[in-house]
Amino acid sequence: MKKTPKFALLVAASTVFLISAATPALAHNELLSTSPESGTTVQAGQIPITLHFEEDPLDLGLNKGNLIAIADAETGEQLGASCAQVVGRDLTTTVDISKPGQYKILWRSTSDDGHAASGEYLIRVENTTNYQTETPGNQCLDESGVPINISDQETLSTKKSSGLSALDGLYVGIGFIVLGSVISAILIRRKQDSNFNNYE
């Protein structure tokens, strides 16, 4: 049966409608700017963190759906719990850092369509004032004002394993195989030489 031009036109129109209808569901709230900016060096102390989004994040309540955390960039260890306040189009928190070095700012945000987005960026901390703190990281409180323990929530950053990586393990295994092969070859050669001398 030959398809008519009207049928082809109907299929094309339906396709365009379905694509345009699905597009809003794929949209999510874009992060426009950060303070401090990525790559910035800041002074140790109470460091305000602000993430500015294209639209208002969906306010799901304190410390729910919209989170900010800080982690040691080298080890991946998250310092303190994850939390943030929603202020208009911004997510804000304050982190307490004394140790100089590079840190990751990690975030998770929920837009008004329920879509969750996440990301991270790096900042560097210097300490020229000898600032000290006993509780480094994000200082998060629940609705009752009680500090949130990092062990009571899923972290945004995971500490890197201090053991051998899979690749390191592979190299070590290959090294043992090569070493074993060399030793075996030497022993076989010695045995052959010994047999040859006995034969003489």
Instruction: Tell me the overall shape.
Output: elongated
H/E element sequence: HEEEEEEEEEH
What structural class results from the helix and strand content? alpha+beta
Radius of gyration over C-alpha positions, nearest whole angstrom = 29 Å
Low-confidence stretches are 15-26
Please indicate the count of domains: 2
- The overall pLDDT, averaged over residues, is 81
Q: What characterizes the major β-sheet?
A: 5 strands, antiparallel
List the helices and strands and how they pair.
Blueprint: H1 5-26, E1 31-35, E2 41-43, E3 45-53, E4 67-72, E5 85-87, E6 90-97, E7 101-110, E8 116-126, E9 137-138, H2 166-199
Describe what this molecule looks like in 3D.
The chain is an alpha+beta fold and 200 residues long. The chain folds into 2 domains: 128 residues, Sandwich (Immunoglobulin-like), CATH 2.60.40; 38 residues. It is 28% helix and 28% strand. Strand 5 and strand 6 form a beta hairpin. It is elongated and about 90 Å long.
Q: Which terms summarize this structure?
A:
9 strands; Immunoglobulin-like; five-stranded antiparallel β-sheet; alpha+beta; 2 helices; 200 residues; four-stranded mixed β-sheet
Summed up:
The chain is an alpha+beta fold and 200 residues long.
